[in-house]
Structure formats: structure tokens, C-alpha cells
Amino acid sequence: MFGAMKPGQHTNGTWKNRVIVHDDHMATEIQSENPGLSLDMRAVADGAELTLQVTNQSDRTWPQLASMIACFNPGPRATQNRQFTNTNSWFHSADGLKPPAIKAPREIHYNTKLRKAIDAQADDEKFVWSSKWPTSEVDAIDGLIIRESTDATWVTGIAWNRFLSAQGHNPWECMHLSAHVGILKPRQTRTVAGRIWLFKGNRNDLLFRYQEWKSRPVN
Description:
Blueprint: E1 17-21, E2 27-32, E3 37-44, E4 47-55, E5 67-72, E6 89-93, E7 96-98, E8 108-110, H1 115-120, E9 144-148, E10 154-160, E11 163-168, E12 175-180, E13 189-200, H2 203-214
Antiparallel strand pairs: 1-2, 2-3, 3-4, 4-13, 5-12, 6-7, 6-9, 8-11, 9-10, 10-13, 11-12
């Protein structure tokens, strides 16, 4: 989004990744086919700690809003986790947890701190993705998306400490949470901390754990 990795308002990524499992089987490194992009994941008791590293290997400075959409989903139909193939999702607004797509299917909720800069990039109040992800009037205040299981006993979620937007309920019932990496000069590296949760509980339990995670000192 907005000129990250490639020039343009919205460009495609790749699913071709190299996965390296550490000897302790508690961590993995995912190296993208795109140079300069890697994700470290380390298992913890209730999910996984994420470290996304992005290096601008182009000769242009990525703009302020440069971001990448991470797709968090229950998997393709043949192998998906049925307990999380639903629309029991929430994002964090100024009025608390709310379901995505408040007024229209697949609405996109922007980071309220960046909303003015985002709106300035719109052409007649629209973006190239607006036909599938219309802009919501309700902003997100945190980089967090939550989903409860269909039987209401488990909860999962994903968070980034830098984010641009939250959106969900695409064909795989996925949750899109974009990692914000701009401004990024040529050869400069940005590190974005993230977190995945999966435990027995509900959305309010996960929001509490998110707030604890968010309050930790940043190394």
C-alpha cells in the first residue's frame, strides 16, 4: 500500500516464501521472495511473538504512508480451521471493540492518527481498492484485529505496533492488518513488532493481553 516495496497505491505481493524452522522447533524465519522482507516468529504460551524486518532496497524513498497488508486467515477451504471460519471479528475503535464492516461489507478502518494524511491521497475520496474495501467513517485506534471461535470458547488475534489499517471478511474470511513501514529511505531498515494470540477466552480477554503487550518497553 502507498508505495511500499513497489511504486503505486496498491500492488501485489507474493506467496512464495522460504520457511526456516529453528532447531528448538520454537521459532521460524520466513524469508520472502521479495528481497529485504523477512518475518521471525517465536512461539510463546498463548501464541507467537513476531518481528517483521523491512529493508528498502530500491533507489526511491518510500512515502510516509507506505505499508504492507498481512493476511491473517483460517486457511483455504480444504484445510481451513472451521472454528475460525466465521465473521466473529472485532477491531479497536475509540468507542471500544467493534465488528469490521459497520455499514458496508469489507469496509477498511484507517489508523485515526494517520487519517488526515490518508484522505489527502484519495482521488475524489476514493482509492484504487475502494470498490472492494470502501472507506469506513469509523477509525481504528490500535493495530489489532480479534476473532472469537464459532463455539465461543477460543479467541485469536493479531497485532502490529505500527499499523495503517484494519479490514476483514474477504473470501477466506481473513483479517487484514497492515504493517506501517514508511517513511523509509533507500537501504534503511524498519522493524515492526507484532503478536499473534490463540487461547481459551473471549475478545475482552484478548484486548487486555494486547494492552499489556502494547505497554511493554520497546527495545
